[in-house]
Specification:
Low-confidence stretches: none
Number of helices: 15
Distance between the termini: 69 Å
Shape: globular
Strand order of the largest sheet: 2-1-11-10-12-13-14-15-16
Mean pLDDT: 94
Helix content: 25-40%
Strand content: 15-25%
Structural class: alpha/beta
Amino acid sequence: MLGNMMQQPLLISSIIRQAATLAPNAQIVSRRIEGDIHRYTFADCYQRSCRLAHALRELGIESGDRIGTLAWNGYRHVELYYAISGIGAIVHTVNPRLFAQQIEYIVNHAEDNVLFVDLTFVPLLNELAGKLPSVKLIVLLCDEDHAPAQTNFNFVCYESLLEDRSEAFDWPEFDENNAACLCYTSGTTGNPKGVLYSHRSTVIHALASCTPNALNLSRNSVVLPVVPMYHVSAWGLPYSGLIAGCKLVLPGAQLDGASLFELIEKENVNLALGVPTVWLTLLEYLDKIGRKLPSEIIVAVGGAAAPLALAEALREKHGVYLMPLWGMTETSPLATFGGRTPEMEQMTIEQRNRIQTSAGRAIYGIELEIFDDDDNPLPHDGRESGQLRVRGSWVMQRYFRADDDATINGWFDTGDVATLDSEGYLRIVDRKKDVVKSGGEWISSIALENAALSHDSVREACVIGVPHKKWDERPLLLVVLVENHALDKKSITAHLAERVAKWWLPDDIVAVDELPHTATGKLHKVPLREKYRGHYQ
């Protein structure tokens, strides 16, 4: 027997329609490429999204067409999110930190019809001019006064596109399983792969993200997503933020410590989300100027494991809670969180540190499991490690334009090696491709890196497995030093010896000026493994 309830489709257009009705005066604050701070309301955003929807229709954009965006976190990008998917087309957020050849590949693979581009990326478009045959129109996200005088391509200005359009739009209804957003993976090996989100998966992900056992968003929230809108939808915040009616503070292209602190302080931000390197840079800036973060702010960390040194610095210097998050492009991305709980008040510092350097626990709608090489589930004892797999309503089943199902018995294999404990806390031990296999035993590069980061002289750390005649592989530690610090291998090794097993200790430590990162800010170890392949020979 079926229930007797209405079958109202879960569509992204419903988010902005209700936001404009229920929280019309909630604000979106953006630092613009033009240099100023722009401020407007959800009602304003809705009206401009309607005008954009009319413009897209007049351009002949149809349901299922892919529309690319090369843009920072800003109000115009929010409008694109809603207008494009609202008419049934697909928002394809293009990561500008990818190599030009990768961007060329994914725009052509997606067959984007139109590209909406921030002024920052005009040089990139000049380089790609003539190489994107499916792109019929390029729209620069500016007005006529800020348009560049000369480019290698024809364009129209975004503000001109919106002129004289109606501020009301009759949003179409269609199947909630229709595609809404397209995002490609970082592509550290091989070409990037597309993940195609549906309206249903996007809305459910946003709703789950709002709950107290996730980001805990409400009208009291002032949220600064430093995570980019050009990759996995800024962790869904342009959707969940409007559902919750919270104030969104969008940092644009200026992600340095001074610019972020200015927004945090002036806009009273109480939730900020970003990768570890963003917060380490901010804390370094605050140390220099002798200032502190407001104690009521929560700093959410994802994209890479939260270093213990970062959790301790936030707590001890600023009285701020670090909340770990974990997810990936294929999980929309939020899958786990490590929010503050009443039980934590009774815990020792070591117990708190263990939670804050974990990946947290699954949010409702996500299931986690670890498996051995024979596909047998492993115990959740916090010690046994295995292949991490995930399933849920916003987890990918197959890649865009791929015929093969990407799941194993209904589970998506993340490529991570992990543990789960009896309370559900997830700890990523390593990426399968990054784990160091020494003498038949695994060494976690992540654990070694986090231990190194707690040394006073280490600003950034990377561990790679290097071929070794006797042990198959041994760890090599590469470090970027804090300014004016010299490399002291004995001191760093002694520091590590207090935190990891003796046989984990790297055979050598090398200081480098900088470390390569992927387009999403993670350490890029492929070129490092190639460069240092003969280091122990």
